[in-house]
Amino acid sequence: MEEAIHAAPLAFSAMKMGASHYNQVFHDSTSFIHRVVNTKRLQFYFAVSNQQILRKIGVLLFPYTHSSWKRQTHASEASIPLTPAEDINTPDLYLPFVGIVTYIIFCAMGYAVDASYDMQHISRPVVCSIAVVAVELIGFKLASIAFGIAGPPLLEIVGIFGYKYVSLCVALLLSLIHPIAYYMALAYVAAAFGVFIMRTLNPLLISQTEQRRAGMLSDPMVDQADRKALMARTYFVFIVGISQVAPLILLGMFRPAFFLLAPSEVTM
Amino acid sequence: MSSVLAPTPPGEKHSVDRFEAISFPEFVGSSYGNPFAKRGISAPGPDEVFNDEAPLLEELGIDLWAMKKKLIFSLFPFREAPVDIASNSEMAFPIWALVALSIILLFAKKLVFKQILATFLLSTVALDGLIHLMVSEFTARNRDGPISTEIYMVMSAMGYGVLPVLFLAVSRTLLVSFKSWVGGALCVVTLVWAASISTQLLSRAMAVPQQKFIIAYPVAMIHAVMILMLV
């Protein structure tokens, strides 16, 4: 092989790339997992980086100062989607997944310190979070069909609605201090997440209308229909944002009764 | 030529072969229960012993040099790990460490073999899936060739993070009561130490320094669950 490097280096690197591509395609087409799940699409949503995660958590907890909520496109070609590491407005799946796992472990850990092991403390949050994710996904899809909106793809919907677990974990952390602190944190988190989801869904749903309005001059009939559609979609986004309070309250019910500063028992 | 394990049928002399250095008593009747009966191949002498077989540790797959280098790295994980020790899959120490951890906890009257081994196995497989999703061609757009996430490499990295947990188990069993703040501080130190070992090894092997802290978080959660089992 050494003479191939010296004789035609370009051909050698092409050979290497061809071999690796063949290996990957062979591996993808014969392995069991790749028949069940579309790994490439999932990998796109998991391509995150440290800074992006930190910024995203900051935007989740304080969405009031974030200026641009539109999804950006690639600089040179518009058809390549930007990974979550490159564009902060792309929803990723890492943060919701880790948020759900942290939420479950948090709910179970408060009882672990007492050495009282009960499977309920793990299974109830698991079932509840899976149910909440499924109900929200189905509800959003049905509502977007009812409103005639072409919503974002399935995995992005899971990602956008899954961010609430991260804010919920922050509120649960504060619940360790005092029961009242939990309710205050929950109120703040519900408001912040509502604003976050309203501002995230806005560019995704209303962009069609605004594009048409920007393109056409004022035609009264079209303008009327556009305005009604715009109002319908704005109400839809508003209702989605307000209704996030209910899952947050529901999921928070599984938190352990474990306080550090409350006047009742202090274990550990 | 009969095999070593099957006795030569009665009446048949053994064939002449090169392992004739030591003379054993002749074969008489059935050879079961008779340790000196001559079997198909007679016992080789000390010079011709197992010429075509590898040394024992190599056959078992225990690489002592890699283990030593990885252990020395585990004691001080705060510098960057060399790639050759990060990407080798040395499984002997993790297996030993998990069993040793369970045995040490027997002194504390806790029977946790099943819990520790099951947690380690399932969470490492899940972490391998997560890493396989996170480290892909999208992570570095100018990567050449596919990235292979080997499950044993991830298991090895997580297994060397069990070393601090071993120290913690020893101190819990023998020295310190965990109800005081000293025990809590020791738990936190152990968690940080174990998580940094595994994260350094993993992020160096996958060559993703920009994802180090997002690998560190699930790794820290897994080690925290294992530490909670011994509290």
From TrEMBL, chain A:
Membrane spanning stretches: 93-113, 125-150, 170-197, 235-254
A Gene Ontology biological process term: endoplasmic reticulum to Golgi vesicle-mediated transport
Keywords: Endoplasmic reticulum, Golgi apparatus, Membrane, Protein transport, Transmembrane, Transmembrane helix, Transport
Primary localisation category: endoplasmic reticulum
Entry's localization field: Endoplasmic reticulum membrane; Golgi apparatus membrane
Bilayer topology: Multi-pass membrane protein
Pfam (any one): YIF1
Any single Gene Ontology cellular-component annotation: COPII-coated ER to Golgi transport vesicle
Family statement: Belongs to the YIF1 family.
Task performed by this protein: Has a role in transport between endoplasmic reticulum and Golgi.
Protein name: Protein YIF1
Species in which this protein is naturally found: Carpediemonas membranifera
From TrEMBL, chain B:
Entry-linked InterPro entries: Yip1/4-like
Protein localization: Membrane
Region forming the signal peptide: none
Single GO cellular component term: trans-Golgi network
Alphabetical keyword list: Membrane, Transmembrane, Transmembrane helix
Membrane topology value: Multi-pass membrane protein
First-listed, main subcellular location of the protein, grouped into a coarse class: membrane
Name assigned to this protein: YIPF5 YIP1 family
Biological classification of the source: Eukaryota, Metamonada, Carpediemonas-like organisms, Carpediemonas
